[in-house]
Amino acid sequence: MPFSPFERDGDRPAILRAEPDAYYAKIYGLTRDELRCILDPKDVYGPDSPSETFRVLEEKEEHKYGEYRTVA
């Protein structure tokens, strides 16, 4: 494809992926802490948390960007 639909910006794809999360959190009345618990339970409950909501996504982002950007 000769032209992209928009100029590739390093943070833009992450922002576009985060917008639906924010939208649904607002619709369902989730607090910031509740959303954090869903997106990254280890951040809330510590590294021994048995819950792994988005483990594969976290691993891929850490490999590609050096950090877990979905929650950031």
Summarize the structure.
The protein is mainly alpha-helical and 72 residues long. The chain contains 4 helices and no strands. The protein is flat.
Write a structural description:
The protein starts with 11 loop residues before the first helix and ends in a 7-residue tail after the last helix. The chain is mainly alpha-helical. The chain has a domain at 30-72. The protein has helices at residues 12-27, 32-39, 41-45, 55-65. The protein is flat.
Q: Secondary structure elements and their pairing?
A:
Layout: H1 12-27, H2 32-39, H3 41-45, H4 55-65
CA-based gyration radius = 14 Å
In the predicted model, the low-confidence regions spanning at least 5 consecutive residues are none
| Most strands sheet | none
Helices, by number, come to: 4
Shape: flat
Spatial separation of the terminal alpha carbons: 31 Å
What string gives the helices and strands in order?
A: HHHH
Estimate the mean pLDDT confidence: 80
Question: Strand portion, in percent?
Answer: under 5%
Features:
72 residues, mainly alpha
